[in-house]
Design brief:
The protein is of the alpha/beta class. It contains 13 helices and 17 strands. It is globular, with a radius of gyration of 23 Å.
Length: 383
């Protein structure tokens, strides 16, 4: 069995790298297993008060939940890495996510240089995740590989790692990981073992407060969003991406801030179309006007309109970081997300506080009322 670990800061694309690797290795005929490390000490797959929880509370060392399409084994005590690895000895590859404590080949995901440097060690075989959106091929002598655009290359690297013999050598956890709940965990209040606080936080985290539309090109996503925005009775701000043409020919897109700005400060290009080669992004617009627009909307406590998010922002790191801050702190975001593959978009779509509606020919005429009702349920004033 070959073991590889994928590590990195939050929202750096670890899960995207893991899932892309699993899919590619499966295509090559390998058996693959994964292990996700979770650092919050109160995390449990089981739900308090469920039948399986009652089995565990009664003293069962192992509880098995057998469903029609899946089976889950739950142990009363945590297993060591080697104990877990030994249970996957019938697979060809075991991909770990977030495990810093074992001396195995490592893929580092990051946003900035400092994030990557902190996690690179002698076992590092590649740098990937959001960091791979930078226009560089190597960092500190290590290959930088985009898992979405060049998964074949990354899988080739992983395919060549050596077989592992148990027990696996251990590494000391970085201090920021070993004290994750104390300083960084979003669920730090749960760590107080206060059941009332835990239940309150679970309800809080289950609330959807951001709504995004997605769908095929030209299906009417922005048209539907504009209809909803027109019905808002509360302050909103944000941006739209608009096409610009010369003599009837599409020449690219520009960033329009909804909030009033000086003429020379608004309507800046975000892409330029060159013949038949396609649109070439202008990242500086996202990193300057884009970041400023997001910050202003958050500071004014407005509803943020984001029309739209797509692959043009894939290397706009400051814009991405600010957008995640807005997701965490903004009272509500209404937006459009392109139906395309990008680590940045994947991280948004899998958030529990995000609701995504796919616009189709069949539902686009009646979807407006459903979304408006959901917005009302969130306490937002809307006609």
């Amino acid at each position: 069995m070959k073991i590889c670990t994928v590590v990195g800061i939050r929202h750096s694309g670890k899960t995207t790298v893991v899932t892309s690797l699993v899919s590619e290795l499966k295509k090559r005929g390998y058996k693959v297993a994964t292990v996700k490390s979770i650092f919050c000490p109160t995390f449990s797959l089981d739900k308090k008060g469920s039948n399986t929880d009652k089995h565990r509370q009664a003293g069962a060392e192992i509880v098995v939940a057998k469903a029609k399409y899946s089976t889950a084994f739950m142990y009363s005590n945590p297993l060591s890495d080697d104990e877990i690895f030994s249970k996957a000895d019938n697979v060809d590859f075991l991909i770990l996510e977030g495990n810093y404590g074992v001396k195995v080949p490592r893929i580092v995901c990051a946003h900035e240089n400092n994030d990557a440097s902190f996690r690179i060690n002698d076992e590092t075989i590649a740098v990937s995740g959001v960091f791979a959106n930078k226009n560089i091929k190597e960092y500190q002598g290590i290959k930088v590989i985009n898992a979405l655009e060049n998964i074949n290359e990354l899988a080739d690297v992983v395919e060549k790692i050596p077989e592992v013999t148990l027990p696996v050598d251990k590494l000391e956890l970085p201090s920021e990981v070993s004290e994750f709940c104390k300083h960084n965990c979003n669920h730090h209040k749960v760590c107080k073992d206060d059941e009332a606080v835990k239940e309150e936080l679970e309800v809080e985290n289950s609330k959807v407060k951001h709504i995004f539309l997605t769908g095929e090109k030209k299906i009417g996503k922005s048209t539907l969003l504009n209809k909803i925005v027109e019905r808002l009775e509360e302050p909103y701000s944000g941006y739209q991406t608009r096409p610009y043409e010369i003599e009837g020919h599409l020449k690219g897109y520009y960033f329009h801030s909804i909030k009033e700005r000086e003429e020379f400060e608004n309507d800046c290009p975000i892409s330029v179309r060159i013949k038949k080669q396609g649109n070439f992004p202008v990242f500086e617009t996202f990193e300057n006007l884009g970041v400023e627009t997001l910050k202003d909307s958050l500071a004014d406590n407005d509803i943020l309109i984001a029309d739209e998010l797509g692959k043009l922002e894939r290397k706009a790191e400051k814009f991405q970081e600010q957008f995640f801050r807005n997701l965490k702190n903004q009272r509500m975001i209404l937006g459009v997300i392109q139906k395309t593959k990008a680590a940045f978009l994947d991280e948004i779509l899998k958030r529990k506080d995000v609701k995504v509606y796919e616009v189709t020919m069949e539902n686009r005429d009646f979807l407006e009322d459903e979304i408006v009702q959901n917005i009302k349920n969130l306490g937002i004033k809307i006609k």
